[in-house]
Protein backbone atom coordinates (compact mmCIF):
# COMPACT_ATOMS: atom_id res chain seq x y z
CA UNK A 1 0.00 0.00 0.00
CA UNK A 2 1.21 3.49 -0.80
CA UNK A 3 1.83 5.18 2.55
CA UNK A 4 1.48 8.57 0.91
CA UNK A 5 -2.21 7.85 0.32
CA UNK A 6 -3.00 6.75 3.87
CA UNK A 7 -2.53 10.05 5.69
CA UNK A 8 -4.14 13.25 4.58
CA UNK A 9 -3.60 16.35 6.67
CA UNK A 10 -5.31 19.69 6.48
CA UNK A 11 -3.01 22.66 6.90
CA UNK A 12 -4.66 25.42 8.98
CA UNK A 13 -5.18 28.79 7.36
CA UNK A 14 -3.38 31.88 8.59
CA UNK A 15 -5.43 34.23 10.77
CA UNK A 16 -7.35 36.85 8.82
CA UNK A 17 -5.24 39.83 7.68
CA UNK A 18 -7.85 42.35 8.82
CA UNK A 19 -8.19 40.63 12.21
CA UNK A 20 -4.44 40.97 12.76
CA UNK A 21 -4.61 44.60 11.62
CA UNK A 22 -7.45 45.40 14.03
CA UNK A 23 -5.61 43.69 16.87
CA UNK A 24 -2.41 45.62 16.22
CA UNK A 25 -4.33 48.91 16.22
CA UNK A 26 -6.11 48.04 19.46
CA UNK A 27 -2.76 47.21 21.08
CA UNK A 28 -1.31 50.54 19.94
CA UNK A 29 1.08 48.96 17.46
CA UNK A 30 1.05 51.64 14.80
CA UNK A 31 4.60 51.34 13.44
CA UNK A 32 4.17 48.01 11.64
CA UNK A 33 1.68 46.58 9.18
CA UNK A 34 0.42 42.98 9.52
CA UNK A 35 2.34 42.08 6.36
CA UNK A 36 5.60 43.47 7.74
CA UNK A 37 5.04 41.70 11.06
CA UNK A 38 4.51 38.39 9.28
CA UNK A 39 7.59 38.98 7.17
CA UNK A 40 9.59 39.61 10.34
CA UNK A 41 8.27 36.41 11.84
CA UNK A 42 9.08 34.33 8.75
CA UNK A 43 12.54 35.90 8.53
CA UNK A 44 13.29 35.00 12.13
CA UNK A 45 12.06 31.44 11.66
CA UNK A 46 14.05 31.09 8.44
CA UNK A 47 17.23 32.17 10.24
CA UNK A 48 16.64 29.41 12.79
CA UNK A 49 14.96 31.29 15.65
CA UNK A 50 12.35 29.42 17.70
CA UNK A 51 10.39 30.92 20.59
CA UNK A 52 8.37 29.63 23.50
CA UNK A 53 5.11 31.48 24.13
CA UNK A 54 6.42 33.98 26.68
CA UNK A 55 9.49 34.81 24.61
CA UNK A 56 7.38 35.12 21.47
CA UNK A 57 5.01 37.64 23.07
CA UNK A 58 7.95 39.65 24.39
CA UNK A 59 9.69 39.64 20.99
CA UNK A 60 6.49 40.67 19.21
CA UNK A 61 5.93 43.50 21.70
CA UNK A 62 9.45 44.76 21.01
CA UNK A 63 8.95 44.52 17.26
CA UNK A 64 5.69 46.47 17.51
CA UNK A 65 7.28 49.04 19.82
CA UNK A 66 4.79 48.54 22.65
CA UNK A 67 5.44 47.73 26.32
CA UNK A 68 3.47 44.49 26.34
CA UNK A 69 0.43 42.84 24.83
CA UNK A 70 -2.58 43.32 27.10
CA UNK A 71 -5.49 41.55 25.41
CA UNK A 72 -5.67 37.82 26.10
CA UNK A 73 -7.56 37.23 22.86
CA UNK A 74 -4.84 39.11 21.04
CA UNK A 75 -2.09 37.04 22.64
CA UNK A 76 -3.80 33.86 21.46
CA UNK A 77 -4.15 35.24 17.93
CA UNK A 78 -0.45 36.16 17.73
CA UNK A 79 0.59 32.76 19.08
CA UNK A 80 -1.71 31.17 16.50
CA UNK A 81 -0.11 33.24 13.74
CA UNK A 82 3.32 32.04 14.85
CA UNK A 83 2.48 28.35 15.19
CA UNK A 84 0.54 28.20 11.92
CA UNK A 85 3.31 30.05 10.08
CA UNK A 86 5.89 27.55 11.34
CA UNK A 87 3.61 24.67 10.34
CA UNK A 88 3.31 26.22 6.87
CA UNK A 89 7.07 26.48 6.52
CA UNK A 90 7.53 22.86 7.59
CA UNK A 91 4.78 21.55 5.31
CA UNK A 92 6.13 19.03 2.80
CA UNK A 93 3.44 20.02 0.31
CA UNK A 94 4.69 23.63 0.24
CA UNK A 95 1.48 25.04 1.72
CA UNK A 96 3.20 28.14 3.08
CA UNK A 97 1.27 31.38 2.51
CA UNK A 98 2.09 35.09 2.89
CA UNK A 99 -0.08 37.21 5.18
CA UNK A 100 -1.28 39.84 2.71
CA UNK A 101 -4.50 41.77 2.01
CA UNK A 102 -7.04 39.78 0.03
CA UNK A 103 -7.42 40.13 -3.71
CA UNK A 104 -10.40 42.47 -3.37
CA UNK A 105 -8.22 45.24 -1.97
CA UNK A 106 -6.82 47.99 -4.18
CA UNK A 107 -3.79 46.77 -6.10
CA UNK A 108 -1.60 49.61 -4.82
CA UNK A 109 -2.28 48.54 -1.22
CA UNK A 110 -1.36 44.98 -2.09
CA UNK A 111 1.88 46.02 -3.77
CA UNK A 112 2.78 48.08 -0.71
CA UNK A 113 1.96 45.13 1.54
CA UNK A 114 4.22 42.78 -0.44
CA UNK A 115 7.00 45.37 -0.27
CA UNK A 116 6.50 45.63 3.51
CA UNK A 117 6.50 41.84 3.85
CA UNK A 118 9.89 41.62 2.13
CA UNK A 119 11.25 44.44 4.27
CA UNK A 120 10.10 42.64 7.39
CA UNK A 121 11.61 39.35 6.24
CA UNK A 122 15.01 40.94 5.70
CA UNK A 123 14.93 42.58 9.14
CA UNK A 124 13.84 39.41 10.91
CA UNK A 125 16.33 37.26 9.02
CA UNK A 126 19.16 39.64 9.82
CA UNK A 127 18.38 39.57 13.55
CA UNK A 128 19.16 35.85 13.91
CA UNK A 129 21.34 34.90 10.95
CA UNK A 130 24.66 34.81 12.80
CA UNK A 131 27.62 33.43 10.87
CA UNK A 132 25.64 30.99 8.75
CA UNK A 133 27.26 30.56 5.31
CA UNK A 134 24.97 31.50 2.44
CA UNK A 135 24.80 30.00 -1.04
CA UNK A 136 24.69 32.18 -4.12
CA UNK A 137 21.03 31.27 -4.64
CA UNK A 138 20.18 32.39 -1.10
CA UNK A 139 22.07 35.66 -1.57
CA UNK A 140 20.21 36.22 -4.82
CA UNK A 141 16.87 35.65 -3.10
CA UNK A 142 17.74 38.13 -0.36
CA UNK A 143 18.80 40.67 -2.99
CA UNK A 144 15.50 40.23 -4.80
CA UNK A 145 13.65 40.76 -1.52
CA UNK A 146 15.67 43.93 -0.97
CA UNK A 147 14.65 45.25 -4.37
CA UNK A 148 10.98 44.41 -3.80
CA UNK A 149 11.13 46.06 -0.36
CA UNK A 150 12.15 49.33 -2.00
CA UNK A 151 9.22 49.41 -4.41
CA UNK A 152 7.03 52.47 -3.99
CA UNK A 153 3.67 52.73 -5.69
CA UNK A 154 1.64 55.49 -7.21
CA UNK A 155 -2.00 54.35 -7.35
CA UNK A 156 -2.47 56.27 -10.59
CA UNK A 157 0.26 54.20 -12.26
CA UNK A 158 -1.20 50.80 -11.39
CA UNK A 159 -3.92 49.23 -13.49
CA UNK A 160 -5.91 46.04 -13.58
CA UNK A 161 -3.54 44.55 -16.13
CA UNK A 162 -0.80 44.68 -13.47
CA UNK A 163 -2.76 42.11 -11.46
CA UNK A 164 -1.13 39.07 -13.07
CA UNK A 165 2.33 40.55 -12.56
CA UNK A 166 1.63 41.08 -8.87
CA UNK A 167 0.37 37.53 -8.44
CA UNK A 168 3.51 36.19 -10.11
CA UNK A 169 5.68 38.31 -7.81
CA UNK A 170 3.79 37.09 -4.75
CA UNK A 171 4.35 33.50 -5.83
CA UNK A 172 8.06 34.18 -6.38
CA UNK A 173 8.37 35.66 -2.88
CA UNK A 174 6.48 32.72 -1.40
CA UNK A 175 8.73 30.14 -3.03
CA UNK A 176 11.92 32.12 -2.35
CA UNK A 177 11.01 32.30 1.34
CA UNK A 178 10.48 28.54 1.40
CA UNK A 179 13.85 27.99 -0.29
CA UNK A 180 15.64 30.24 2.20
CA UNK A 181 13.94 28.48 5.11
CA UNK A 182 14.93 25.04 3.77
CA UNK A 183 18.55 26.06 3.20
CA UNK A 184 18.96 27.61 6.64
CA UNK A 185 17.12 24.79 8.43
CA UNK A 186 18.90 21.72 7.08
CA UNK A 187 16.97 19.32 9.31
CA UNK A 188 13.96 20.07 7.08
CA UNK A 189 13.94 17.92 3.95
CA UNK A 190 14.20 20.37 1.00
CA UNK A 191 12.88 17.75 -1.42
CA UNK A 192 9.75 16.11 -0.01
CA UNK A 193 9.39 14.03 -3.21
CA UNK A 194 12.58 12.13 -2.38
CA UNK A 195 11.36 11.56 1.16
CA UNK A 196 8.05 10.17 -0.07
CA UNK A 197 9.86 7.75 -2.37
CA UNK A 198 11.65 6.30 0.66
CA UNK A 199 8.32 5.59 2.37
CA UNK A 200 6.93 3.35 -0.37
TrEMBL record:
One of the record's GO cellular component terms: cytosol
Q: Which SUPFAM superfamilies match?
A: YgfB-like
Top-rank taxon: Bacteria
* One Pfam family linked to the record: UPF0149
Could you tell me which InterPro entries the record lists for this protein? Answer: EF_Hand_1_Ca_BS, YgfB-like, YgfB-like_sf
Family named by the database record: Belongs to the UPF0149 family.
Spell out the protein name for this chain.
UPF0149 family protein
Amino acid sequence: MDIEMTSEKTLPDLPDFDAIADLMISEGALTLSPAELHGLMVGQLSAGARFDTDTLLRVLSELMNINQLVEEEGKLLFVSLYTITLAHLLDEDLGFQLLLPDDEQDISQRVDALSSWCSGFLAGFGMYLGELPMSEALKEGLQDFSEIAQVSTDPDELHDEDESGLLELQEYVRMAALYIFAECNPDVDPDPADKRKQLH
